[in-house]
Amino acid sequence: ISQTGFVEPNGVDLSYVRLPLLVPSVLFAVMSLTAFLVALVLAYMEDVVPTDDQMRRGVLIPYGAIRLACNTTVPFPRGGLPSILLLFERNAYGNAVFRISTCLPIMLRIFQSLSVRHMVRAKQKCGAIFEITSDLMPALTAVEAFSIALFSIMTIHSDFPMANRFAKLSFAISASLNMLASTLILFHFKSKSNNPLETISVGLKIVSLFVFCYLSPQYFQYHHTVTMQPMCHSYIPRIYALIEYVLVAAYAVFHLSWLIDIRHLQFLCYPRSCSGECEPLDPANFVAGGKYEHCRAFEERQWQMRRGKEEVQGEE
């Protein structure tokens, strides 16, 4: 069909499914953030804080329906604050809801990354480095999303300690690389835009990128050291707890800023994109000149139009 010069109609008015990508993105973002906050509240309320004497003698820590015995001579950190990851590690209900928060948006995040990649590649022609970097975005997003989901599912005390630590390491590396690649691509793509929203989006990404990449190695190295010891409580030194809080905030801000980037993207479904049927199933839509005349037997209809033109030209 393309070789004969015919072009399939693909105007927005011909699509029978038109869903702005912003709608499910906002919905899943709200659901994921809500689940995270609920998990944090549940874990904090369920958390047991033993004294130094109890830790030395041994203490039973409740985790759902089971009790975990724990004893250590490591003193309770003076002026310490609760660690978010340790709260989820030690409290069953908080951990269960945390899994919902991390697993729920996986596919949508990958689809968002693919959509932005296609948008950038379609609107801007650049060199090989730009193309390779944009191609890496969906892959890095997938590794990052599955890594955070895995370490939320696998606990250190009951499942696979080494797998949990490997998933956290994989998350830290892939998240840093993904944030770097996304920021570079979108900064280059929007550098000539005068829209203040685009400036805000890129600015938030740059700040979040520097904060996350600078603090994540320090935090995850300390977190790895802490989890090698018996985890009788969820408290860590104040400085590392504050670093963790800032990391979580920077990570959330970075990915929420994607809502600005995808606000104009839409998911369109054309009649010929599916099984060949059109909605609504009204015969009037399929007659010559009807809205969906190209839907059923599109190629045949195009050839009919061509033969009709040839016959008219022959009569003339």
TrEMBL record:
InterPro entries on file: PGAP2 (IPR039545)
Cellular component GO terms held in the UniProt record: endoplasmic reticulum membrane; Golgi membrane
TM annotation in the entry: 21-45, 136-157, 169-187, 199-219, 239-260
Biological process per Gene Ontology, one example term: GPI anchor biosynthetic process
Residues of the signal peptide: none
UniProt entry keywords in alphabetical sequence: Membrane, Transmembrane, Transmembrane helix
The UniProt record lists the keyword Plastid: no
Protein name: G protein-coupled receptor
UniProt organism field: Pristionchus fissidentatus
Lineage of the organism: Eukaryota, Metazoa, Ecdysozoa, Nematoda, Chromadorea
